[in-house]
Protein: Polysulfide reductase NrfD
Amino acid sequence: MKQIKIFSQMIKDGFKEATHGSLYYHVWMGILTFFMLWGAYSYYQQISEGLVVTGMSDRVSWGLYISNFTFLVGVAAAAVMLVLPTYILHDVDFKQAVLIGEGMAVSALVMCITFVMVDVGGPGVLWHMIPGLGTFNFPNSMLTWDMVVLNVYLFINITVPMYILFRHYQGKVAHKKVYLPGVMISVFWAVALHMVTAFLYQGLQARPFWNTALLGPRFLASAFAAGPALIILALGMINQYSSFKIEKKTIQKIALVITVSAQANLIMLGSELFKEFYSPTHHSISAQYLFFGLGEHKALVPWIWTSIGLNLIATAILTFNQLRKNMTLLYVACVILFIAIWIDKGFGLIVPGFIPGQWGKIVEYTPSSVEIGVTVGIWALGCFIFTILTRATIAIELGAIRYKK
Structure:
């Protein structure tokens, strides 16, 4: 009972910390609240009228929602790049940033699950995913495997940091034997999360665009580039607007992880392009549509070449030490790399798999205003959660809030 009382007090103190701040903080939270309300209204329209108000159809049944889901799975899994060196390799330089990375993983996973919820139409059909009550179809369906790994990874990323913060809130050191098993599992689970998501697409025989053995490795490489890039941007904001300071060498080590991952991602992209266009077959039509268009159908061509261009620029900046050590250039590289991979893992991966259809018909996809509104609202929700978690975490780590007996 005593531990429950202490935990309840920690939640209350954390909530109090998250609801107080400077004018800039309240403006930021107000902006996020506005976008969440916009997303809620857009979702209300979707529930009222059905998925017909989206740009999706029976030809292209996965659009902006699943594109963002696929990208955010990578952002969530990227936390392992901080967990692994901190708790297993004992690299103290990462210790300052690891709880921030875990908070980002939780926010990304909440967004992932929310994107799945809105993609199926409405919450009324989610009971089909409940084992024993609905048709969960486990272990035959890769979709159910994906939902299992998502929820287990979310549970791990909540419980392990929560235990560490709970001990620090009491002014005590966290017991390694308690949290280390969860850390070890999270490292394995982060890789499994990405590979299972890749298998979900690879296993669809009627979609040859996704039938490549490099899909899983490219998922990991792009995840370990985009996720840490977002973490660096978050750490930069924390350094700027809080008293919790992250050392430059910590950020530079994370930047080195991004550099290697971005380079590996480009190498695998080049390998896929060679496979698709050096000896093209009828299975290369989707790639032809994506990179060069099919006749007058060229909706995705500017998107993918913008992504590749940004990818090359960001990787070039990161590759040269003198450029990477310039913090302004590093932040610029992280922004454009994040945008590049968002395009690549979204419109560049999901939509082309449906074009052309199995019978050769070309139906292009453009997201509707409702989809955009819901998507912006979900991203605002993720930022809102991350801001609250980060603010409470920093207060505990700095000793600003402590349990008073």
User: Anything to note?
Assistant: The chain is about 70% helix and 0% strand. The CA atoms of residues 8 and 14 lie 10 Å apart. Residues 248-277 form the longest helix (30 residues).
